[in-house]
Design goal:
- Helices cover 33% and strands 16% of the residues.
- It is built from six helices and five strands, in the order H-E-E-H-H-E-H-E-H-E-H.
- Strand 4, helix 5 and strand 5 form a beta-alpha-beta unit.
- It binds zinc ion.
- Zinc ion (ZN) binds next to helix 4.
Length: 170
């Protein structure tokens, strides 16, 4: 039923490091967030971004959405077939479905929802990545845990008690 998973590819760590650089930029930019993303096709980085939700007063401005929009502007199309999206954190439900609409071919993420505090996820009781695995397109691959340790350093861990003003999704 599903496309044959190629699993982790040799170039995945290299591109994830670029996503980590984006997360660092977001972390150091007032109002931006510490989630980074790059979108790659045929070995070339076509777009990069980080979370800008607070900066833009736009709750949809997650790193993945910001980067998808930049890519659309650049390519002048909304069809991103053949592209791989790298993100430092497992995509939420909104971004997972956005990737489906965008026809992204592969999603590669770093920190998994088990690595981080539950406040980062809109869905407490199901895993949005299962939407892709089980319910939607069968020509999309999703791979998690690439450089997970490096990516997880940006986020509160499951046992942490983040300051209330920093808690999202409560
Ligand atoms: Zn998201």
């Amino acid at each position: 039923m599903s496309v044959k998973s190629r699993g982790v590819l040799p170039e995945d760590e290299r591109f994830m490091r670029l996503a980590i650089e984006q997360a660092c930029q977001g972390d150091q930019t007032r109002g931006a967030g510490e989630v980074g993303c790059v979108i790659v096709r045929d070995g070339e980085v076509l777009a990069a971004g980080h979370n800008e939700a607070e900066l833009r007063h736009d709750p949809t401005a997650h790193a993945e959405i910001v980067t998808l929009r930049k890519l659309g502007e650049k390519l002048q199309t909304a069809d991103f077939h053949g592209c791989t999206l790298y993100c430092t954190l497992q995509p939420c439900g909104m971004c997972s479905v956005a990737c489906i609409w965008a026809k992204i071919t592969r999603i590669v993420y770093g920190a998994t929802r088990n690595d981080v505090h539950s406040m980062y996820f809109d869905t407490r009781h199901f895993n949005a990545s299962d939407l892709i695995r089980d319910a939607f397109r069968d020509d999309m691959e999703i791979v998690g845990g690439v450089l997970a340790r490096e990516c997880t350093q940006f986020y509160y861990r499951p046992g942490d008690n983040p300051p209330r003003e920093e808690q999202i999704n409560i």
